[in-house]
Amino acid sequence: MSRKLFPIFIALVFFLGIAAGSVFAADKYAKLTTDLISQDDAVRTKAVKELVKAGKPAVPSVVKALQSLEVYTGRANAAVVLGRIGDKSAVPALIKALGDEYTDVKVKSTEALGLLGDKKAVDPIIAAMKEGNYDLKTTGAVALGKLGDKKAVPYLKELEKIQDENLHKAVKTALERLK
Length: 179
What we know:
Distance between the termini: 73 Å
Low-confidence stretches: 9-25
Structural class: mainly alpha
Shape: elongated
Largest sheet: none
Strand content: under 5%
C-alpha cells in the first residue's frame, strides 16, 4: 500500500469500526427492549437495569418500545426505564402513553413523568387522572407534587373529596409540596 493511501485506509477502517459499533449497540438495545416483555422476571429485571445503565443512548430504542410493543407490560416497563434514565426528550412519548388503553402503562408513564420533572406534563397528567382509577389518581397526585406546578392545586383539592385512604395520603403530600 502506498504511503499516500495509508492514512485514507486507516480513516476508513476507523469509520467502519464506529459504524459497526453503532449498529451493534442499536441491536443490543433492540434485544433489551424485546426482553421487557419476557415472561421471566430475571430477564425483564436485567433488561430494565441494562437499559437504565446505558442511559441516554438507549432512549430512542426505549421510546420506540413504549410506542410499539404489543404486550402492555413491555410498554409499562419501557416507561419505567425512561423515568429512571431521566432524559426529558422522552416526555412527549410518555405524555402520549397516558392515552394507552392499559392502566398499568398510564400509571408507569405518570410515575416517569413525575421523575422527569417537566411541567409540560401537568395538564396531560390531570386529564389522565380524571378518566383513571384510584391507582392512576394516586400516582398522578404524587407526580403532580413532584412537578411542583401550583396549577395542579385546584384538581388536587377536588380529589380530597374521594373516599380513598391512599389517594388522600398522596394528595396531602402533593399539596404540602406545592405550598
